[in-house]
Design goal:
There is one protein chain. By secondary structure, this protein is mainly alpha-helical. 52% of the residues lie in helices and 10% in strands. It has a 3-stranded parallel beta sheet, covered by helices on one side.
Length: 157
């Protein structure tokens, strides 16, 4: 069998629903998506990493684009949150913007903060609140990973 699956399982357990994977087509697709078992873990709510696949040899670029898009969405969400600071409340605002996402406890607390934010913005029909309503999960720090096999890494032949 492939030795990569335990590593992927561990990484998904560490980052969970805050993990995004850009996967290169090849052996990583087989050991990562082979049923009846898969190394990708989910939490008690059934949420886990987002997995995308690039068919061509551009997975590094594909993954970089995923990272840039993720960063931009977080930047926008933080900008909207800043504009709604008074409505949200200073304590919740500070808790959300100071999250670094490096500890599982922090990630779990950030999800609670985001849910509280959603509750506080319910009924707020301003354009900024509506815009933020599409992006609240992006307030949590995301970890983007690029997976590929030896063929994609150009170390065959």
């Amino acid at each position: 069998g492939c030795g990569e699956t335990p590593y992927i399982k561990l990484i998904t357990q560490l980052w969970g629903e805050n993990m995004l994977v850009a996967n290169a087509t090849g052996c990583s697709s087989i050991y990562g998506g082979n049923l009846p078992s898969t190394p990708y873990s989910v939490n008690a709510k059934g949420r886990g990493p987002a997995w995308s696949n690039s068919l061509f040899e551009d997975n590094a670029e594909f993954g970089m684009g995923l990272k840039l898009a993720t960063d931009k969405k977080r930047e926008l969400a933080l900008q909207y949150l800043e504009e709604l600071k008074e409505e949200v409340g200073a304590e919740l605002y500070e808790a959300i913007i100071n999250d670094n996402g490096k500890q599982e406890v922090d990630a779990q607390q950030q999800q609670k903060n985001i849910e509280l934010l959603r509750q506080r913005l319910r009924g707020n029909n301003s354009k900024v609140a509506r815009d933020l309503d599409y992006l609240p999960d992006n307030l949590a720090v995301k970890s983007v990973w690029i997976f590929g096999g030896d063929g994609w890494a150009y170390d065959i032949g």
